[in-house]
Amino acid sequence: TFVIHEHFNSIMKYYPFFIIYFLLFGSNISLQAQTLNVEINKVKSNKGKILLSLYNAEKGFPYESTSCIKIFTIQPVVGKVKLITNDLSKGIYAIALFHDADENGKLSTNLIGIPKEGYAFSNNASNFFGVPNFKDASFKLTGDTTIVINMKHF
C-alpha cells in the first residue's frame, strides 16, 4: 500500500495542471467569447421594433421566448438592419425573429393565422405548413460569424 500511496501523491501534485489543461483544451466549453453578426434584410417599415430570440436548444423553439437564451430588441430601418453580439460561446444556435410593427409584443396574424408582420428564421429556414424546426434553423458558431436573414412578408 505504501507504493500505491506514494504513486498517488506524485500524480496528485499535478492535479491542478490537469484541471487547467482540461478546461482550456479538453472540453467543449469555450473560454473565449465569439462574435455573431446578424444582418436582417427586407425590412419594410421603420415602425415598431424587431424582436429577435436566440436559442441554443430545440426546447421551446421558436414559440417559447422563456426558452431562449437571449432576446434582442432592434430599431427597424427600411431595407436592412444589423445586430452584433460578442458574448456567445461556441455552440449550436438558432434565431427566430419578427417585426413587431404594432408593438403588441406578438406576431400579429389574420383570421386564418397568416402573419401580418414580417418574420424570419436563421438559415432562412421555412416550412410550408408552419414554422421550421430547430435543426433546419440552427447554425454552428465556432468563431466570429456573420449570418444573413431575409425577412418574409405575406
How would you describe what is shown here?
The chain is an alpha+beta fold. It is about 20% helix and about 35% strand. The protein is built from three helices and eight strands. The strands form two sheets. Strands 2, 3, 5, 6 and 7 form a five-stranded antiparallel β-sheet that branches. Strands 4-1-8 form a three-stranded mixed β-sheet, with no helix packed on it. The chain is globular and about 45 Å long.
Characteristic terms for this protein:
single chain; 154 residues; alpha+beta; 5-stranded antiparallel beta sheet; 3-stranded mixed beta sheet; 8 strands; 36% strand; globular; disordered N terminus
Give me the secondary-structure topology.
Blueprint: H1 2-12, H2 15-26, E1 34-43, E2 49-55, E3 70-74, E4 79-88, E5 91-100, E6 119-121, H3 134-137, E7 138-141, E8 145-150
Parallel strand pairs: 1-8
Antiparallel strand pairs: 1-4, 2-3, 2-5, 5-6, 5-7
Overview in brief:
This protein is an alpha+beta fold and 154 residues long. Helices cover 18% and strands 36% of the residues.
Mean pLDDT, to the nearest integer, reads 86
- Shape descriptor: globular
- Distance linking N and C termini: 77 Å
Number of strands: 8
- What characterizes the major β-sheet? 5 strands, antiparallel
Strand content: 35-45%
Indicate the structural class. alpha+beta
> What is the count of helical runs?
3
**Taking Cα atoms only, what radius of gyration do you get, to the nearest Å?**
22 Å
Q: Stretches where pLDDT falls below 50 for ≥5 residues?
A: 1-5
Query: Helix coverage percent of residues?
Result: 10-25%
